[in-house]
């Protein structure tokens, strides 16, 4: 799915902000899958800033595109000649919290190691964003576990190969253990 398609799916497409969408598409890596994207007002602040619910406060806000991929979250803004992009890897997200006012307007704060994104959304978009973040984090942790497990198998097979090389085990024992490790 393209970022533009994800924005349309979220119901936040803004025909007046094509520059931010194009900039976000440029920032997307070849090995990433887009899970969610919205057009919104976003503040990128230091980690220790408070979460205020004043929707009319525009200081420190940028209009742009917020994207969740299977590897990271990022924000891109391109208005005239002013381009800005910030990202947080999924493994670097330290907390996620949100607030909603009586009118149904919400803010979600996603904190990383050094900075945080504060995103203005409506209540419906808030839930979709939170669900997508949870899904992305689950995918990221599954990939991390798989890589660690695969690395463990490789280390064990290399150790067995050294034992074979030093004639401590036979070729048959090596093949049997390798087959067992790789579950073939």
Could you name the key traits of this structure?
single chain; 184 residues; alpha+beta; 7-stranded antiparallel sheet; 4 helices; 40% helix; 32% strand
Task: Characterise this structure.
Strands 4-3-2-1-7-6-5 form a 7-stranded antiparallel beta sheet. It is built from 4 helices and 7 strands. A hairpin with a 2-residue loop joins strand 2 and strand 3. Helix 3 packs antiparallel against helix 4. It is of the alpha+beta class. It starts with a helix and ends with a helix. The mean pLDDT is 84.
Give the strand tally: 7
The largest pleated sheet is described as:
7 strands, antiparallel
Low-pLDDT stretches are: none
* Helix and strand composition category: alpha+beta
Average pLDDT score: 84
How would you summarize what this structure contains?
The protein is of the alpha+beta class and 184 residues long. The chain has helices at 3-10, 18-27, 123-165, 171-182; strands at residues 34-46, 62-69, 72-79, 82-89, 95-100, 105-111, 115-122.
């Amino acid at each position: 799915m393209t970022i533009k398609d994800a924005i349309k799916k979220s119901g936040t497409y803004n025909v007046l902000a094509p520059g931010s969408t194009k900039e976000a598409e440029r920032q997307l890596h070849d090995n990433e899958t887009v899970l969610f994207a919205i057009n919104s007002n976003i503040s990128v602040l230091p980690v220790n800033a408070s979460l205020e619910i004043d929707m009319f406060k525009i200081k420190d806000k940028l209009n742009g595109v917020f994207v969740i991929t299977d590897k990271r979250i990022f924000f891109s803004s391109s208005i005239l000649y002013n381009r800005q992009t910030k990202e947080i890897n999924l493994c670097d997200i330290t907390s996620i919290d949100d607030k909603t006012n009586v009118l149904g307007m919400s803010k979600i704060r996603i904190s990383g190691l050094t900075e945080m994104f504060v995103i203005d959304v409506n209540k419906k978009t808030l839930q979709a964003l939170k669900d997508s973040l949870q899904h992305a984090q689950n995918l990221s942790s599954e990939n991390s576990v798989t890589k660690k497990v695969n690395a463990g198998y490789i280390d064990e097979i290399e150790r067995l190969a050294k034992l074979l090389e030093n004639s401590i085990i036979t070729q048959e024992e090596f093949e049997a253990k390798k087959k067992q490790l790789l579950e073939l």
